[in-house]
Amino acid sequence: MKCLDDLLVAVQDRPVKKIALAVPEEPGLIKLVKQATELRLAEFILVGDEDRIKELLSEQDLDFKDFEIQDRKDHKQAAERAVSLVVEKMAEVVMKGELHTATFLKAVLGKEKGLRTGNLISEITLYDKIDGGGLQLITDCAMNISPTLDEKKQILENAVELARKLGYEKPKVAVLSALEVVNPAIPDTLDAAILSKMADRGQIKNAVVDGPFALDNALSIAAAKQKKIGGEVAGKADIILVPNLQVGNALHKALVYIAEKKIAAAIMGAAAPIVMLSRSDSTETKLVSVALATYIS
Description:
The protein is 41% helix and 18% strand. By secondary structure, the protein is an alpha/beta fold. It folds into two domains: 4-117 and 270-296, 3-Layer(aba) Sandwich (Rossmann fold), CATH 3.40.50; 122-257, 3-Layer(aba) Sandwich (Isopropylmalate Dehydrogenase), CATH 3.40.718. The strands form two sheets. It has a six-stranded mixed sheet with strand order 8-7-9-6-5-10, with helices on both faces. Strand 1, helix 2 and strand 2 (43-48) form a beta-alpha-beta unit.
């Protein structure tokens, strides 16, 4: 994948996958369902209050007979049913609708009937590289607050798995900190150096990992050369592993509101792709995130 638009085209050329959408009881969600269906990005099984769903479909000039609706008025039951549809192979992706994130994730992570694999679940933000050289991945921007070294390894591995599904055979990973040298006073620089060495020793596979990097010399070849930083990753990172949620969340929102970049978001680490969108996400972000989930399913 060279850009997010390539992803939209690629999905349209494949068999349409099904998304189990829990509690689609909000006009914006039904509008998204309509757009994604018309573009052949996905088909939807709508799980929630059947009467309300039919009302919202009618408002969008959609015939409820064209959609599979499963009546679950209780949000907990709707989330559990949406997850079970994926577990039972009746859908390939599960998506959060108009319900609390905690309720949705409790169903996703249920020990007996959920999508738990034993791996850490993490979020990945994707956007087109500034130089047009492919996709840039940043993780974790939404879920893990202050990950330990082992959790950072799992977050990194989730991002590598996604990158490989998108065609990056051996993605370059820059482990981010405030500076590009190891400083014992900044623990994140120590974690970065350890992760880099773990990759060198084969404990992290299918990726080239280096760090610590400041953001400029992870993304800019000119900045890396100016600071005399060499290696395969410097200035050419495909994946940016942030030290904590505060950094990741700020970068995610800076891309949207300052750089005005089109982005997509993915949740990895479960047994199937998960879509969790915000009401404030643009239509483009919502559509490409749906496309991404169905593409990797």
